[in-house]
Amino acid sequence: MAVRCRGSYSITSPQGIQAISIMIQSTVEAARPREGERCQTHWNGVLDHLAIRELTARYNRAFDDVDSEAWADTFTSDGVMEYGGGSPISGRDALVKMSQATGYGFVHITTDPIIEVDGDRATQRCTVIIANRSQARDRVGIGMTGRYEDELVRTPDGWRFKRRKAILDVELGG
User: Fold this and answer.
1) Going by C-beta distance under 8 Å and a sequence separation of 6 or more, which residues neighbour residue 15?
2) Of 53, 79, 138, 165, which has the fewest CB atoms closer than 10 Å, so is most exposed?
3) What is the pLDDT of residue 18?
């Protein structure tokens, strides 16, 4: 028996402004006594996937805009960032300093997410394209590509990166 599940999902900015509202309708195969439970489980999975993608978008925008505090907020307080074979950057203060030291010039584009949720933990693997831009707005180019491998946890404030590893297709500094 097919059961129709309907619901809506709103993304609200940190300032409390509703940024987007999505209406989702899907069909789930279910036995009659459990249709509500299965529909809710399916719906919760959709919401988790959307929330993780929205977290990834906030990560991208905050880093690219050098909003270091907002970028660090996408991680748990003991979150870890790894990239380019260097030493892992651990903890909020170190993440803020890394973002500030990097500065302006990048545009992160993430695509092709594969997200697996298991209760309050999740993994995400996605492709990253990193463009370079200038403040003079006179050039843009693709700087590098690669993949992110993410470990996420659900917190009272929503999903956060526990560990994010960038596996780049180029050697940094080379």
Assistant:
1) none
2) 138
3) 53
Residue 8 in contact with residue 24, Cβ under 8 Å?
Answer: yes
> What pLDDT, on the 0 to 100 scale, is given for residue 15?
56
- 3-state class of 77 per DSSP? strand
pTM score of the predicted model: 0.79
Element (H, E) at 161: strand 158-168
Residues whose CB falls within 8 Å of the CB of residue 112, separated by 6 or more in sequence, listed in order: 126, 127
- Phi-psi label, residue 47: left if phi above 0, alpha if psi -120 to 50, beta otherwise: alpha
For residue 86, the one-letter residue type is G
Rounded Cα–Cα distance for residues 162 and 167 (Å): 16
**pLDDT score for 124:** 98
Structural contact between residues 99 and 72, judged by C-beta atoms closer than 8 angstroms: yes
Q: How many other C-beta atoms can be found within 10 angstroms of the C-beta atom of residue 5?
A: 19
Report the candidate in 169, 64, 172 with the shortest Cα–Cα distance to residue 108: 64
Question: Burial of 120 by CB count in 10 Å (0-12 exposed, 13-18 middle, 19+ buried)?
Answer: exposed
The helix or strand, by DSSP H or E, that contains position 174, with its residue range, turns out to be none
User: Which parts of the chain have pLDDT scores under 70?
Assistant: 1-36, 172-174
The per-residue pLDDT for 11 is 52
